[in-house]
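Morning!

This is the sequence you dropped in the shared folder:
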Amino acid sequence: MTKKQGAVRPRSGQNRTLKYRVLDWTTTVVIGVGAAALLLFGVFSPMRVESATMSGVEKGDVVVADRLGKYLYGFDRGDMLLLKPVEFEINKNTDKKAEPLRLARVVAFAGETVTISGGSVYINGSLLDETEYARALYTSIRMEFTVPSGSVFVLPDERLYLTDEMLEELVVDTNRIKGEVRFIAYPFARMAAFK
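The structure's back. Tokens below.
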């Protein structure tokens, strides 16, 4: 057998034109950006904090909440949640807008009895220890209720100015929970993960 001389086959990819290489790179970049956007806005939910009502989070921070966690493993007492705004009818004659997203901690779950007395919170008769992150409630507030099915009771860490009426609004339907806050993404100097 004899070899033919002069017939050198190009290695794979060598005969591709610049046009196809650019198309390959563009496709890769578009898929990467699409996957990042899906993760950032589909799995995670970023939000700029408008008021400092939670310990460890300041006004202007950008926090990121995990949207899938509520379906995979639920919440624990004390978890910081990102809530959807309360929906209400807007009067077209005013400039009134829906309230902004809110941050709050899980205090009680459906079926639990919450008692608020003397600035403290009791769950099914036991004092809830929140000393590591929460301030006491206004001492004149006294109320007792059972959290309805499909709901959780949440509270902000900054509680000094809460009223009885505000507390009633903080029994929220689980459909209003956007996700559990996992970390501060911005400013970079304050980046921190929760739990």
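Headline: Confidence is low (pLDDT under 50) at residues 87-91.

More detail when I'm at my desk.
O.
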